[in-house]
Amino acid sequence: MSRPIPGFRLSLGIVVAWLSLLVLIPLAGLFLKASSLPPSRLWEVLSSSRTISAFRVSFGCAAMAAGINAVVGPVVAWTLVRYTFPGRRILDALIDIPFALPTAVAGITLTTLYATNGWVGRLLDPLGIQVSYTLKGIVVALVFVGLPFVIRTVQPVLEEFPAEAEEAAALLGASRLQTILKVILPSMAPAILTGALLSFARCVGEYGSVVFIAGNMPGKTEILPLLIITHLEEFQYGEATAIASAMLVLSFGLLLLGNRMQARLGKGWTR
Amino acid sequence: MRAGAKRIQNDPWWLRAGAIGFTLLFLGIAVLLPLTAVFVEAFSKGVSGWWAAVSDPDTVSAVKMTLLAALGAVPLNTAFGVAAAWLVTKHRFPGRHVLVSLIDLPFSVSPVIAGLVFVLLFGAQGTFGPWLLAHDIHILFAWPSLILATAFVTFPFVARELIPVMEEMGTQNEEAAVMLGAGGWTVFRKITLPGIRWGLLYGVILCNARAMGEFGAVSVVSGHIRGETNTLPLQAEILYNDYNFTGAFAVASLLTLLAGATVVLKLWLERKIAR
Fold it and tell me: B174: distance to nearest CA of chain A, Å?
């Protein structure tokens, strides 16, 4: 028998220490602080119309952005994997820009582009569409931030999709479109869902890219992270903590649910 | 395996043209346009206007703070990432999967909450606040909290990249080396490290890009003291809110160059790894 590889205790020590000190203990402190609030106070904070609206804006816009990316992402991934055309490699590289670009830069740039005198806003304004300082602006920013997730999870699956399955479908008389919609798309579904979930998780808590374009009207376009900061700046630590804990619980719960759905979806199609 | 010519011919021309057209249009508006806008705005008062903003003492101080935050957080998370990947790929133990999920946890925590947890610990009303105050130790609104908040948000990056790479390598080579009498450190340096170096560099680069560009977490803990605790993204925010758009976009252009360099390095590494 082989001897075990050394370094178990050392690496376990480093990992547990750094994980606890930096992540687990501070997060536990957050929940401890929230639980020290009287339940009536907790309820008062969480059920205020301003808080509920912020929950709706953050979770709603993140879901909408994830949905848009779940539709657009597979088309972009398909194009980049299946077709060769001039500029394809550059487009492929551009997909990573939202990952690498600091969110504050995305925020001020998108706000400037979509303001009524901006390059894009100028075109939309005569149509009566206002993007900056509205919910639409939040969704635009979140689509940008979440853009790479679906594309980057679908691409490798599409690359490895067996040619035999497509050939079989064609031999059995399926049209090309039928093959794409009924054979290829269903096997992409788990990857699309994974990407959409990653995008959603990232977008729910997103701050930098949203805060400039949102307009930040309490009860209308105010996102949760901003509400937390507002409470902090007024030294209302209890309120900030209560909202942050509820937000974490809700997003962890949704992600868990998503993972379950995805496990079921994966099973259903890889019979 | 790449799509062969036969499969491409299978697609009707309108599907092909439609998909390529849509992708060009979407990525053009969503990504290329904002990138262009950053530089057009940054140079709207010419190169001298850009240089004036970039060489402003507050901006120079922000560059230093950004470098400091990254220099503090990235090496710590790199060491952690290597240890974590070594632990979960070379050893089997109960709770391994839970540990992997816990490592990914900061990905789904809002950066603002990442900042808030340190305010609760080190703020004047926080757990350690009074003690720190009595001993005149400054963590919040000073560089230590910038490093902590940055380390929190970039926590999973290196581990996340390394775990699949080391998983794929397996453990046979390490086991053989141990059988032949090599010590743990030698095994890591001579056997593991050569196989993971590009993956490691890849993780470090992504970690660094996020560390230098972090906004929400740093915004909560920095206190926004100009010329002292502002990082580059915070400096861009302050200038923007002052209606100094040329200045804000000049700072933004520096960060965009960083993002561009990150993407180029990433592509280069991906080609190395594929080989």
Answer: 7
pTM to 2 decimals?
0.93
pLDDT of residue A271: 32
Q: State the DSSP code for A106.
A: H
User: Cβ contact (<8 Å) for A97 and B259?
Assistant: yes
Interchain CB distance below 8 Å, A96 and B263: yes
How high is the ipTM of this complex?
Answer: 0.91
pLDDT at B7 over 80: no
Instruction: Answer whether A83's CB lies under 8 Å from B8's CB.
Output: yes
Residue B6, Cβ neighbours under 10 Å: how many?
A: 9
Written as one string, the DSSP assignment of A200-266 is HHHHHT--HHHHTTS---TTTT--HHHHHHHHHHTT-HHHHHHHHHHHHHHHHHHHHHHHHHHHHHH
- From A95, A104, A159, residue closest to B237, measured CB to CB: A104
Decide if B267 and A93 are in contact by the 8 Å CB cutoff. Answer: yes
A residues 121-140 lying closer than 8 A (beta carbon) to B: none
- Least Cα distance to A187 among A171, A164, A210, A221 occurs for A164
How many Cβ atoms sit within 10 Å of the Cβ of residue B230?
Answer: 26
Cα–Cα distance, A83 to A95 (Å, whole number): 16
For residue A267, the model assigns a pLDDT of 57
Residue pair A150/A69 in contact by the 8 Å Cβ criterion: yes
Nearest CA in chain B to A205: B110
What is the average per-residue pLDDT within B254-273? 93
pLDDT at A1: 45
Instruction: Using the predicted structure, report yes or no on whether residue A103 has a pLDDT greater than 90.
Output: yes
Residues of A in contact with B8 (CB under 8 A): 82-84
Distance of CA A239 to the CA centre of its chain: 25
pLDDT range class, residue A260, cuts 50, 70, 90:
confident
Percent of residues in chain B assigned helix, strand, coil, to nearest 5: 80, 0, 20
* Nearby residues of A267 by Cβ (< 8 Å), 6 or more positions away: none
CA distance B23 to chain A (A): 5
Burial class (CB in 10 A: 0-12, 13-18, 19+), B94: exposed
Q: Are A71 and A59 in contact (CB under 8 A)?
A: no
Residue A13: per-residue pLDDT: 95
Shortest distance between the Cα of A53 and any Cα of chain B, in A, equals 18
User: SS3 helix, strand, coil % of chain A, rounded to 5?
Assistant: 75, 0, 25
Nearest of B142, B145, B151, B141 to residue B211 by alpha carbon: B151
CA distance A269 to chain B (A): 22
Dihedrals φ, ψ of B147, to 5°?
A: -65, -45
* List of domains in chain A: 38-161+189-270 (1.10.3720.10)
- Mean pLDDT of chain B, nearest integer: 92
